[in-house]
Amino acid sequence: MLLICMVLTVSLSVFLSFFQFGRTEVIDNTLNPDFVRKFVLDFFFEEKQNLRFDVYNVDTRSSNLSKHDFLGQMFCTLGEIIGSTGSRLERTLSGIPGKKCGTIIFTAEELSNCRDIATMQFCANKLDKKDFFGKSDPFLVFYRSNEDGTFTICHKTEVIKNNLNPVWQPFTIPVRALCNGDYDRTVKVDVYDWDRDGSHDFIGEFTTSYRELSRGQSQFNVYENPLSLQYLLGGGGCFFPGNPSQPTSLHYMSPYQMNAYAMALKAVGEIIQDYDSDKLFPAYGFGAKLPPDGKISHAFPLNSNTENPNCVGIEGVLEAYFQSLRTVQLYGPTNFAPVINQVARCAAEITDGSQYFVLLMITDGVISDMAQTKEAVVNAAALPMSIIIVGVGPAEFDAMEELDGDEVRVSSRGRLAERDIVQMGCLSL
């Protein structure tokens, strides 16, 4: 059985096509393969990275896929895998009408910057005899432990035929593939007796760690490999400002196309929603007079439900946004601090590291409370949250650039933010 990873490319913003990124090894005679070969992908949080996985039954040595039987395929984004609970995504295969194609499971993990390479050689003594008419045909399977306590296969040795005291060939493996650079992470090794039909007999197992292995004999060597990869991770949550509702307004509800705010929400929201497990987004507006008494609010739920401001998916947020435009009177000033403080209060309740908040703010560039906003950002920098500000429309956004602490850390009343939590960008629509 063979797994193919395909990556979507965009050419001239018109033509969409997939190119083959890589193939796993072929695993013989099994309906439940556990592939060793991994796909290492660069991850860009701000992009929607579409993936397609095709599964084939390999009948010949030909590399031409048309020579093999297609078993099914699955589409997803890289963000969906990373954003799943424990970065573990299980999906149903499809592609053959009227037939159940099975399921496929992916796990993802951020690669460490460890560049060590380990060369190891293993031997065994007095293994159990599993074959009736001969000795065992042993091989080793190495698993690294995942952060959720499960194990992922990372290496297989060759098979040594008819031998209870095998000496396997030396092999080389990146340390980050073995333990992701954590020298004390558990490494599990299973010993099997190979059978031609794929029903390999389990002989035994042991657990160790890279640190423990490195104390072994001189055949275990480490050297540097000048390669590194960097990844980003994130989560989700959304808030929105208000402005006039004339045909020239960025909020204008045209029957023919979405307005600038809706297009920005859809473009950014469809990317960040992959990192939220339940796809429930609290959505707020800021800068409006609310019915029935015209009270001005700078943090009101778009769905008018103060007890449960959650919307289901980005489509639910869009629906609540359009409905809100029909019921409230958009009104200035545009204050950022109230919604930042509201999210900060939620983030402050999380003390066990189980949640991270991302506040998405879409604005036309007019901010009325810069001093208060800076103070809110400085306070929030100590909490598990980040802020994404997306500017839309023709306004100048230079004034808000000082909230993005890439060059100079945001400060308020002599206090510097502990870290840079604001990313500012403009969306051309």
Automatic annotation (TrEMBL):
A GO molecular-function annotation: metal ion binding
Keywords: Calcium, Metal-binding, Repeat, Signal
InterPro entries tied to this protein: C2_dom, C2_domain_sf, C2B_Copine, Copine, Copine_C, vWFA_dom_sf
Signal peptide location: 1-24
One GO cellular component term noted in the UniProt record for this chain: plasma membrane
Isomerase recorded as keyword: no
The name this protein goes by in its record: C2 domain-containing protein
Family recorded in the similarity comment: Belongs to the copine family.
Gene Ontology biological-process annotations: cellular response to calcium ion
Residue ranges annotated for the C2 domain, each copy included: 1-93, 100-223
Keyword Calcium: yes
